[in-house]
Design brief:
Protein name: MICLK protein
Order of helices and strands: HHH
Shape: rod-shaped
InterPro entries: bMERB_dom (IPR022735), F-actin_Monoox_Mical (IPR050540)
Helix content: over 70%
Strand content: under 5%
Radius of gyration: 35 Å
Structural class: mainly alpha
Organism: Pycnonotus jocosus
Length: 160
Amino acid sequence: RRQATEYSTSSSDEEFESKPSLTHKAKRAIRKRRKLEKETKQLIKQEELKRLHKAQAIQRQLEELEERQRALEIFGVKLERELRGEADSGTKDENQMLHEWFELVMEKNKLMRYESELLIIAQELELEDHQSRLEQKLREKMAIDDSLKDEMDLNEEDEI
C-alpha cells in the first residue's frame, strides 16, 4: 500500500507538473503571438505614417508648382502683349522677346511633366494605402476560425 500510495502520489505529481508546463507553453505561445501581432501593427502604423508624410510632401510640392505656373502664366500674358505690340516693350527687341517666350513655354512644359509625375506618385501612394488596409482586413478575417464563419464571411474573405 505504501509503495502504491507513493507511486500514485508521484505519478499524480508528474501529471500536475506536466499540466502547468503545457499551460505555461500555451501561455508563452499566446504571449509570443500577441507580441508578433503588436509588432506587426506597429510596422503597419509606421508604413502608414511614412505614406502620410510622403503624401503631405507631394501636396506641398503640388501647391508650390501651382504658384510657379500662375507666375509663369502672368509673365506669359505680359510677354505675349509685348510681342503683339499691345504693351510697351521698352528696350527689348523682338528676337529677345521670342527667346523669352520659348524659354517660358519650355519651363511651363517642364512644370506640367513634373506635375504629372507627382500625381502618379500620389496615386501610387493611395494604392499602397488601399492595399495595406485590405491586407489588414484579410488578416483579421483569417484570424477567425473557419467554423465560426458564415457564407457571407467566407465570400468577403475570398473577395479581399
